[in-house]
Specification:
Rossmann fold; five-stranded parallel beta sheet; single chain; alpha/beta; about 240 residues; 2 domains; 11 strands; about 40% helix
């Protein structure tokens, strides 16, 4: 919108062109989806496309309607979705571990603080990578340390300096999810706990670590939904901002 108004003031855009563009704010109706073209202005980060449950034609139509000058993030995307997106946007980048697709149009302004991303195990890395991709796309410096869970808690103490110096910490754990409580007891900064669906039967696809994290007695720990690396990265970025 800012660029549109500047172009109009400079005589690069006609009044009718400006009015036509404003018609699509704050959303554009595709019947199966209402594209929130106003979100970047309102919240500082554009609408993200959650891929599961959407057909490839639906995803393609949504992408075509999103503003062409904004960064775009697609989450939980498989290779078939990426192949389709790549045809529309050859510069699209796929992170296979995170299952994210990025179409980057500009480098965001860098924030000062560091977001530290920790995982309890190697199996938690895909969710962690989703958080990392999200936080970096929002202009954050991210450090990541993987496989420092409670089964070998001495590994965690070797990185205590990183824990002490981070501005926000994201802790990602499956199984029983105890790592968030330990980090929360060490850190003086906000801790965002992410339960994952990793674990044996009694973890109930992430319900067990979710309940452990919700019952954490260490102050300063909040919890997002199971496998929601995007939500953790986004919230960490808001804190860091």
């Amino acid at each position: 919108m800012k660029k549109l108004l500047q172009d109009y003031k400079a005589g690069k855009a006609s009044l009718s062109a400006v009015l036509q563009k404003l018609k699509t704010l704050p959303y554009e109706d595709l019947e199966f989806a209402k594209i929130d073209t106003h979100r970047e202005i309102r919240k500082g980060f554009p609408e993200t496309i959650f891929c599961p449950g959407k057909t490839i034609p639906q995803i393609s139509q949504i992408l075509k309607k999103l503003p062409k000058d904004q960064n775009t993030l697609l989450t939980k995307a498989n290779k078939n979705v990426y192949a389709s997106v790549k045809k529309l946007f050859p510069d699209a980048q796929y992170n296979e571990s995170a299952k994210t697709i990025i179409i980057q149009r500009y480098k965001p302004k860098k924030k000062n603080g560091t977001i530290l991303v920790l995982t309890a195990g190697t199996s938690d890395i895909p969710v962690a990578e989703e958080a990392v991709v999200t936080a970096e796309l929002m202009g954050n410096k991210v450090e990541k340390v993987y496989d420092v869970g409670v089964a070998g808690v001495h590994r965690l103490f070797d990185i205590k300096d990183k824990i002490f110096h981070a501005n926000v910490i994201i802790v990602i754990a499956g199984m029983e999810g105890a790592l968030a409580s330990i980090v929360g007891g060490l850190a003086s900064k906000p801790v965002i706990a992410v339960p994952t669906s990793v674990g044996y039967g009694a973890s109930f696809q992430g319900i067990a670590p979710l309940l452990t994290m919700l019952n954490c007695c260490a102050e300063g720990v909040v919890v997002v939904n199971i496998d929601n690396g995007f939500g953790a990265g986004y919230f960490a970025s808001l804190i860091n901002r």
